[in-house]
Amino acid sequence: MFLSIGDLAVRTGVKVPTIRYYESRGLLAAPLRSAGNQRRYGRAELERLGFIRHARDLGFSLEAIAALIELQDHPDRACTSATRIAQDQLGAVREKIRRLRALESELARIAEGCTGDGAARDCYVLASLADHDLCTQDHPIEAKSSTQVS
Amino acid sequence: MFLSIGDLAVRTGVKVPTIRYYESRGLLAAPLRSAGNQRRYGRAELERLGFIRHARDLGFSLEAIAALIELQDHPDRACTSATRIAQDQLGAVREKIRRLRALESELARIAEGCTGDGAARDCYVLASLADHDLCTQDHPIEAKSSTQVS
DNA sequence: TGTAATCTCTCTAGTCACTAGAGGTTCAAG
DNA sequence: CTTGAACCTCTAGTGACTAGAGAGATTACA
Fold first, then answer.
1. Gap between the Cα atoms of A96 and B31, Å rounded
2. pLDDT value of position B146
3. How many angstroms away from the CA of A79 is the closest CA of chain B?
4. A17/D21 CA-to-C1' distance in Å
5. What string of DSSP letters covers B100-116?
6. Strand C contact with A5 (CB < 7 A)
7. Which residues of chain A lie closer than 8 angstroms to B79, CB-CB?
8. What is the CA radius of gyration of chain B?
9. pLDDT at A141
């Protein structure tokens, strides 16, 4: 089995430039090359990229994935940190859902309060955004998290 | 009322470099300057920045905010587009919640399936990520959206 | 064997919404 | 008048890619 980077891309659903990017970030080892310097992949790389893909779909950062891969490469180590990474991610996702729900109700109130047929001067959307006091509930003051939903 | 950029930052909760960034992006007009070239703000800028802050908290992109501001500056126009922007944003938030909920249950299954006291070779977290077939439900294949939850 | 189409190579730069830092100037309090 | 905080501009970095240029490799078919 010798796959070109394009074959690998089709099989995993990861785009070609993204595969090269992962290699540059150290998530994939530099593969064999053809006589003409093109990348050639085997089953191991296919599986590893599938792993990365799946973890990315679940919102893990590349940093977290690198840690998980490190662990995969050392099967004798305790899997405590893998569990912690997954639990951290779960916590981050739950927090994000919580915040998005607050935004949802606030936005629904704003969007549905306006029929859209008036002039901008009377627009409830604009008024709501201009005056925080119209909020029925407070939405959060910016906090940092790195989970992406894409 | 003449506020320095630092005063404005304290009053709105927007950081100083972010205020300058908004100015560079055209969301805030270039303000008056002191004799020594420092920015001086009045009530109008305070309100506008509050508007931007509120909209950002609700996840609107700077592009969307620019469109809303444009509308604010022309109160005679119909507010149709403001309503559409808000509804688009609401739709994006709902979609994001939907996807995050799928991730949540998948992650909960993975994270709770592992006690964390075994070796990496037997880790359920790693196995789940390596083998997509273990998924009880499918989580989405990467789709594009620009709403950020921060 | 020739050739054309497609793929692949490296490299740089752009995206979004900031954030950090360097190196210098201005302001307000004491 | 001095000190120290706040301000100025500018550049570069973040994460996770994405886009494009310009050149070389591979493959299918005649």
1. 36
2. 35
3. 4
4. 15
5. HHHHHHHHHHHHHT--S
6. yes
7. 114, 116, 118-120, 122-123, 125-126
8. 23
9. 39
User: Which SS3 state, helix, strand or coil, does residue B93 take?
Assistant: helix
The residue type at B99 = R
**3-state secondary structure at position A54:** helix
B35: CB within 7 A of chain C nucleic strand:
yes
Residue of A43, A74, A77, A126 best to disrupt the B interface, most CBs of B under 10 A: A126
Contact present, B11 and B48 (Cβ < 8 Å): no
Low-confidence ranges of chain B (pLDDT < 70): 132-150
**A:B CB pairs within 8 Å:** 203
Q: How long is the CA B114 to C1' D20 vector, in angstroms?
A: 45
How many C-beta atoms surround the C-beta of residue A88 within 10 A? Answer: 14
Task: Report how far residue B62's alpha carbon sits from residue B44's, in angstroms, rounded to the nearest whole number.
Answer: 19
CA separation for the pair A23, A17 (Å, rounded): 10
Instruction: Taking residues A15-37, report their average pLDDT.
Output: 94
CA of B37 to C1' of C24 (A): 13
Reported as a single tens digit per residue, the pLDDT across A43-54 is: 999 999 999 999
Count of beta carbons in the 10 Å neighbourhood of residue B32 = 11
Map residue A27 onto helix, strand or coil: coil
What does the pLDDT look like over A86-99, one tens digit per residue? 888 888 889 888 88
How high does pLDDT run on average in chain B? 84
Instruction: Give CA torsion, residues B61, B65, B66, B71, to 10 deg.
Output: 150
Q: Which two tokens stand for residue A30?
A: 């530099």
Q: Which residues fall inside 7 Å of strand D, measured at CB?
A: A 4, 15, 17-18, 21, 34-38, 56, 61-63, 146, 148; B 4-7, 9, 16-17, 20, 37-39
CA–CA separation, A32 vs B65, rounded Å?
Answer: 49
